[in-house]
């Protein structure tokens, strides 16, 4: 019998790609998602890729009673991969309580139910935002964590702390994965990033500008201490990220973890500037990007890229996709979404 895995937020961007990877590896995937920032079509699109319909439940993790009833019904998950959370840096500054309430309570409720049902293995979706602007680059996991630049970033840091305290009580065996900048889409172009509102992130803003949905991309800052003056990030293909979740889950189920919790950086180890991204996009797609140089965006850091060597070794995981491939797949996904919108519904 295949192992049952609960994926919270499995209809979202990284959750859907991870669900595909898990299904392709023989896991029985159960998704819960309140569809606050995802489309119900995603579940069908996962099934299109894998040939298997994941079990889907529309549920808000903050509804403790509903979650309790769900766990009573679906008992005995071999593990939980917890993605469900709000993720906009700018929105979190406008609605801090909304972010603390949703992101912290969601995790607490999941941990309560895991404890009650003796489900031990948790993979948690964290972020490189916990490092702020690191003193040394590339940044490794043991670098000091800086004061979070946003309520969103602080929720990730507090969630990691909650997991550490719960793990100290041997209530959970956990791995927190600190993502750098996820981008790209599945090769099938059946799933990808689907911002519901105006995107905050560079790559969806770039593809939406290039397809004509947005007028102009602004490059936030040209006076950073970087070779071309624009900010540097470590972009990582979403399928590389998804594969790391599988490795983390296997490490926990086989009790190969060396500490509890463990923390891993998920990045390529290579930084690219905003202008590198724009010019690479233009080169691989042949599409000219309408962009302008603008003021720095408040709260942005100058540069960050990962030292992924701990994940490379412990998870036996390496990134496979280049920046070119990330941007090409993001563009094909944008074109596919446009074509779907233009096709009259049968
Ligand atoms: N950028 C632009 N123009 C845009 C959008 C972004 O120039 O329209 C620049 C940013 O200034 C930055 C780079 O592109 O230099 C990447 O910005 P993103 O918004 O795509 O990503 P961030 O690095 O700001 O944010 C990511 C994650 C967050 C996380 C944060 C921590 O998306 O979840 O890293 O730094 F909190």
Question: What does this 3D model show about the protein?
Answer:
The protein is of the alpha/beta class and 346 residues long. The protein has 11 helices and 13 strands. It has helices at 13-24, 41-50, 64-74, 89-94, 96-116, 151-168, 202-211, 238-253, 274-285, 309-314, 323-342; strands at 4-8, 28-33, 55-58, 79-82, 121-127, 173-179, 181-183, 217-220, 232-233, 235-237, 262-266, 272-273, 291-294. Strands 3-2-1-4-5-6-11 form a 7-stranded parallel β-sheet, with helices on both faces. Helix 1 (13-24) links the parallel strand 1 and strand 2 (28-33). Helix 1 (13-24) runs parallel beside helix 2 and helix 3 runs parallel beside helix 5. The two termini are 38 Å apart. The model has no long low-confidence stretch (mean pLDDT 96). The structure holds uridine-5'-diphosphate-4-deoxy-4-fluoro-alpha-D-galactose.
Number of β-strand runs = 13
The ligands bound in this entry are: uridine-5'-diphosphate-4-deoxy-4-fluoro-alpha-D-galactose
Instruction: Give the SSE order as H and E letters.
Output: EHEHEHEHHEHEEHEEEHEEHEHH
Give the strand order of the largest sheet, numbering strands 1, 2, ... along the chain: 3-2-1-4-5-6-11
Question: Unreliable runs, pLDDT <50, ≥5 residues?
Answer: none
How would you describe the shape?
globular
Structural class: alpha/beta
- Percent of sequence in beta strands: 15-25%
The N- to C-terminal Cα distance equals: 38 Å
Helix content: 40-55%
